[in-house]
Write a structure and sequence with these properties.
Layout: H1 2-22, H2 24-27, H3 59-95, H4 97-111, H5 115-126, H6 130-156, H7 160-167, H8 172-208, H9 220-227, H10 236-266
Length: 267
């Protein structure tokens, strides 16, 4: 019962995030890039519920639009990484031999370096920008999915139903598509949930370092970077984007943990 409560709590958080991101153009009180230099660093007013930043831009509006960036980067990165990892892991686990050795050594090389350092290196070479952030995070994010898929396929391909399909003459692509992939969906869903949280944190980190989205686009990471020099005089500049980032990752972790516990109980 307790697991269901946490699952529903996390799902509610994610539903609110998605709704606020999709509806940001309609519910945001101001243009997130609109500057009002005579209203800079306001802590609160009837017109600016979350206050304003150093350029007089509305913090509430920028926080809502920052959620759109985080959601776009997270979902796109997970989709690309999952697709790459699923394809490479399936080939590695099913074919085995030198193909498995070659692909897994590539994975080992990439995993030998901290992921955020590789992402920083990629974005530093490619330059800042939303598309470059997604590309960098996808190039390092597929390894976890590939190892997970490979391990599951190594276990599943020895099962009787897979052996029967192979004995009946099914080609490898049909065996993977019809018999192996359906059994991979639960662990992949859990991995994708945690991967989404990791991608959102990574995007925030890159934007905080100035390697993410370019100004004046609102991003939680860039908002934290802009507000850190005003921590003592205007802490609200970092409080609201920081809370938004924390609550989003919390919601994803609650959902992921609940799904993981449910899968463990079923197993």
């Amino acid at each position: 019962m307790g697991g269901k409560i946490w699952f529903y709590a996390g799902s509610l958080i994610l539903a609110l995030l998605v709704a606020s991101a999709l509806l940001a153009p309609f519910i945001a009180p101001h243009d997130p890039a609109q500057q009002n230099l005579d209203q800079d660093l306001l802590t609160y007013s009837s017109d600016h519920l979350f206050g304003t930043d150093k350029l007089g831009r509305d913090i509430l509006s920028r926080t809502l639009y920052g959620g759109r960036v985080s959601l776009l980067v997270g979902v796109t990165t997970v989709a690309i990484s999952l697709s790459m990892g699923l394809a490479i892991g399936s080939l590695s686990g099913y074919l085995g031999g030198w193909v498995d050795q070659l692909l897994m050594r590539l994975v080992d090389v990439l995993l030998a370096f901290p992921g955020i350092l590789l992402a920083i290196a990629f974005t530093a070479v490619l330059g800042p920008g939303l598309d470059h952030v997604i590309l960098a995070l996808s190039l390092i994010g597929w390894t976890g999915y590939a190892r997970l898929v490979r391990g599951e396929i190594l276990s599943l391909k020895e099962r009787e139903f897979v052996q029967a399909a192979r004995a009946l003459g099914s080609d490898p692509s049909r065996v993977i598509r019809s018999h192996l992939l359906p059994n991979l969906l639960p662990p992949l869903l859990i991995q994708a949930t945690f991967g989404l949280a990791a991608a959102i944190i990574a995007e925030g980190s890159l934007s905080f370092l100035g390697l993410g989205v370019e100004p004046p686009t609102a991003s939680w990471g860039s908002m934290l970077n802009e507000g850190r020099q005003f921590l003592l005089v205007a802490p609200h500049l970092t409080t609201y984007p920081g809370l938004a980032l924390m609550i989003t990752v919390l919601g994803l972790n609650l959902v992921g943990d609940s799904l993981q516990d449910h899968l463990a109980l079923r197993g």
